[in-house]
Each structure stands twice: as C-alpha cells, then as structure tokens.
Design a protein that fits this description.
The chain has about 100 residues and is α+β, with helices and mostly antiparallel strands. It contains two helices and five strands, in the order H-E-E-E-E-E-H. It has a five-stranded antiparallel β-sheet with strand order 1-2-3-4-5, with no helix packed on it.
Length: about 100
C-alpha cells in the first residue's frame, strides 16, 4: 500500500512535467504570425495589426482608423475574451496630452 502511494505520486509528478515540457516546446517551436497594414493620406492615419499563434488558436487584432477610432479583440479558440469597441479619441485630448508631455520634459 505504501509503495502504491509513491507510484501514484510519481505518475502525477511525471504527468505535470510532461505538460510543462509540452507547453515549453509549443512556445519555442510554434511561430507567431503577424500582419501589419497602415496608410497615411493627408492627415488621416489608418492602421491594422493582426497577431495569431498556434494556427489561430490565439488571435489578437486591433484597428486604428482616421486617427480617432480604435477597435480590437483577443480571441482564444474563436471565443472573444477581450474586446475594444470603437473608442473615440478626441483630437483636442491628444494635443493636450502631447503638450503636457512636452512640459514635463
């Protein structure tokens, strides 16, 4: 009975080590895929960033349009975990934050 306890404990530890090794190998050998698109026409700045890993198992996407609109999401297995829905950034707020940053330098 005492030996079977150690046998079960050994298999549990061995399984945990195998899972940790599998995760480490996935992080090291499965590449991240990324795509960047952007344009600047006149005073309008548009951009898009897409990052995926493990055959789109984990996806990250963010869009920036006309210099004042941000949207994006994070998905795991196609299920949206986190979403940014159309945050509008006023140009006056951007100018004020830039001026404040310059004054602090």
């Amino acid at each position: 009975m005492f030996i079977s306890f150690f046998k079960i404990l050994f298999f549990i530890i061995l399984t945990l080590l195998a899972v940790i090794l599998l995760i480490a190998m996935l992080l090291l050998f499965v590449p991240f895929r990324y795509e960047l698109n952007g344009s600047y026409i006149g005073e309008k700045l548009d951009g898009e960033v897409k990052v995926s890993w493990l055959a789109r198992f984990v996806c990250f996407d963010i869009n920036y349009h006309e210099g004042i609109f941000v949207s994006g999401y994070v998905r795991i297995m196609g299920i949206c975990i986190f979403r940014i829905q159309g945050k509008h950034i006023e140009k006056d707020d951007i100018c004020e934050s830039l001026e404040a940053g310059e004054e602090s330098l």
